[in-house]
Amino acid sequence: xxxxxxxxxxxxxxxxxxxxxxxxxxxxxxxxxxxxxxxxxxxxxxxxxxxxxxxxxxxxxxxxxxxxxxxxxxxxxxxxxxxxxxxxxxxxxxxxxxxxxxxxxxxxxxxxxxxxxxxxxxxxxxxxxxxxxxxxxxxxxxxxxxxxxxxxxxxxxxxxxxxxxxxxxxxxxxxxxxxxxxxxxxxxxxxxxxxxxxxxxxxxxxxxxxxxxxxxxxxxxxxxxxxxxxxxxxxxxxxxxxxxxxxxxxxxxxxxxxxxxxxxxxxxxxxxxxxxxxxxxxxxxxxxxxxxxxxxxxxxxxxxxxxxxxxxxxxxxxxxxxxxxxxxxxxxxxxxxxxxxxxxxxxxxx
Length: 350
Known about the structure:
Elements: H1 3-13, H2 16-37, H3 48-57, H4 63-77, H5 85-108, H6 115-130, E1 142-149, E2 159-166, E3 169-177, H7 181-201, H8 207-218, E4 225-233, E5 238-244, E6 249-252, E7 259-262, E8 279-283, E9 289-293, H9 305-319, H10 327-334, E10 342-349
């Protein structure tokens, strides 16, 4: 039988998780024997090594039993030690850490996978969903970029952007979920995936209606969000903007060099059944630029949102003059509260 066949047979007979458990059990037994025979040279804290490793690689069914096994080995080897204050304190610390690992395993049982696997699954889920916020390829005359910053600098935020190119149109939504930072991160991940699907599947006029119905069905304690939706015809530059309780978009006219605030009204998503979201329409001409953003860009505890919009447009005039590429990053870095999530979308017609 070839070597790959042997490995395949071994994998069928002894699953990977069981092999890991066997290795940890053998290592724990060897450490216990070493402590018993060489009590002066091998400290009791060596037993923490397999315990810590088990918290990373074992599943929630195996981990509690293995921790109890390590503590049993500890109880068996303690009589071989010269009991003093240092040894007693070491035993108390190991039992305390074992209790902490047990608690974490009980919490992890809700997910059903080992620690590293759970983290990798969560990160992969976040990356896959947030990739929906990537701007699709656009014709050469168009430039679009989005930027996101979360409160506290964590990779999970309550603000996000979803974008799609459908039948010659660029469909983009900038969304602000209730809460901020990690507190809103899980709701934002779910909502991001749902709205990404709705954005491609529904006509532009029905997108916010569908998003509102979806949020109403979730029955979350903090189940509301604000959003602004841009539907842009890439051939003509015609746009429709619909808002759901969100700060207004801003359009820079290349001819006058002035920014215009595009006031649009609509109720917050997830609060009113059957709400309507009227559109504000216009045309982005060559040289024009459009900004969509969340309230973290313009609102702070000490500044009204209207004043924040004026400040943002002043900074935009200074930072974007003659160079729109990279402008979204420059604006997000220069504006907004570091204690709130921030998202911004910049669209420019060359």
